[in-house]
Amino acid sequence: METAPPRRRRVGREQLLAAALRLFARDGIQTTSLQDIATEAGVTKAGLYYHYKTKDEIVLDVLRPSLDELPTVTRRAEAHRTRAARVDEVLGGIIDIALDENSGFAVLMKDPYLQQLLSQQESMRRWWDDATTLILGPAPDVEARIGLVMFINGLSGTSRDPVLAPLDDRSRRQQLLACGRRLLRAEQPTEA
Amino acid sequence: METAPPRRRRVGREQLLAAALRLFARDGIQTTSLQDIATEAGVTKAGLYYHYKTKDEIVLDVLRPSLDELPTVTRRAEAHRTRAARVDEVLGGIIDIALDENSGFAVLMKDPYLQQLLSQQESMRRWWDDATTLILGPAPDVEARIGLVMFINGLSGTSRDPVLAPLDDRSRRQQLLACGRRLLRAEQPTEA
DNA sequence: GTCTATACGCCGATAGAC
DNA sequence: GTCTATCGGCGTATAGAC
C-alpha cells in the first residue's frame, strides 16, 4: 500500500476514524452502519469507499494504535528473568491497554463483533502464541493454559463492567492483575 | 401465551429449531440467514415467520431448555449451608450446562451475537442478581464480585477452547471449576 | 392453522461519471 | 477524491391460497 500521494487530503482518514470511533463507542459496531459513519463525517457512503474497501478495514484501523502496542508489551516482558515478573508485565500491559479510555481497544474490546474479527487476524494469532510461550514456557501444563485463556476471555467482559465503576484506575488495574495471578497461580514478583 | 391449539402441526417448531441449531452450530448465528434456516427446514422464509416474528425469537427458543435449567441450579445451591458448597453448586451447574454438547447453550454460548442478546433479557439479569447474592452474600466485597464477573465472562470463551480438547468431560469440569474457585478465593467444600 | 408469493426499506459493496 | 446510481441479500411484513 502507501503509494505516497504528495497532496494533502480534504477530509482525511483521521476524521473518518474519529467519526467512526465516536459512533462505535456510543452505539456498538454492528449497529453503526456505513451510512451513519459517512453522515457523521460529512461524506456519502460511497465516499467512504475511496478510503476503505470494507467495514472491517475501518474497524481495524480504529484499533491500529492499540494493536501496535501489543508487541511492545511482550518485548518488555522478555527482559525479565522470573516467570512471575513476565506474567505481571504481559498481563499488566494488556490490562493497561484495555483500561485506557482513549484507545479504541478499550472502547471496542468488549464488542462482540470485534472479538470475532480479531480472532480471524493472522497477526493477532501469532502474537497470542508468542505471549503464551513467554508466560507459560514452551511446554505449559493444561491448568495454566486454561487459566490464561479464561483471563483473556474474561478481561474483555470485565474491564468495562459496572463492578469496576467505583474504583480508580490504579485499583482497577490492581484488581484485574490479581485475578490474572490467581488464575495462573503466579506470585506477586519480588523484583522491580 | 399457550392458547393451546388442539391440532398438531405439519412441520412443527421442533423441526425448525433443530434445523436452526444445526446451522447455528456450523456457521454461527449471524452468518446464518432466515433463508438458510427456512431452506434447511423445508419451508419458505415467510413460513418461518408464521412461527417466529423475529430472528431473536428463534435464537431464544433454541436456548430455552438451557435457560430454564438455570433457576434449578440456584435452587439446589440454596440448600447448602456453607459458602464453599454454594459456590461449587452454582459454578458447577453453569459449567455442566456450558459443557453439555446436546444443549443449545453449549453450542451458542461463545457466539458473540448471543451474549449481546442475553444481556438484554430481563429474566437473565434477574437470575444473575440472584446467583450473585447466593454466592457472594448480600454485601459482597469488590474483589469477589470482580472474580465472579471474570469467571462468567471467561467461561463462555474457555469452555470450547482447543486447550480443553485433550481432556475428558470430567477433567474439563474439574479444571473450569478450579478456575472459578481460584477467582472467588473459595475452598473446595468438605461436605458432600 | 399453515404456508407461498410478493414486497419494503436498509445493508455492505461496486461501477463509473465528474 | 467524491459523487450518483445500482447491485444482490438481509430481516421484516402483509395478503391471500389451501
From TrEMBL, chains A, B:
Domain of life, per lineage: Bacteria
Keyword Transcription tagged: yes
GO MF term set: DNA-binding transcription factor activity; transcription cis-regulatory region binding
Positions of the DNA-binding region: 33-52
A Pfam family: TetR_N
Residues spanning the membrane: none
Classification via InterPro entries: Homeodomain-like_sf, HTH-type_TetR-like_transc_reg, HTH_TetR
HTH tetR-type domain segment(s): 10-70
Keywords linked to the UniProt accession: DNA-binding, Transcription, Transcription regulation
Keyword presence, Transcription: yes
PANTHER family per record: HTH-TYPE TRANSCRIPTIONAL REGULATOR BETI (PTHR30055:SF234), HTH-TYPE TRANSCRIPTIONAL REGULATOR RUTR (PTHR30055)
Protein name: HTH tetR-type domain-containing protein
Species assigned in the record: Catellatospora methionotrophica
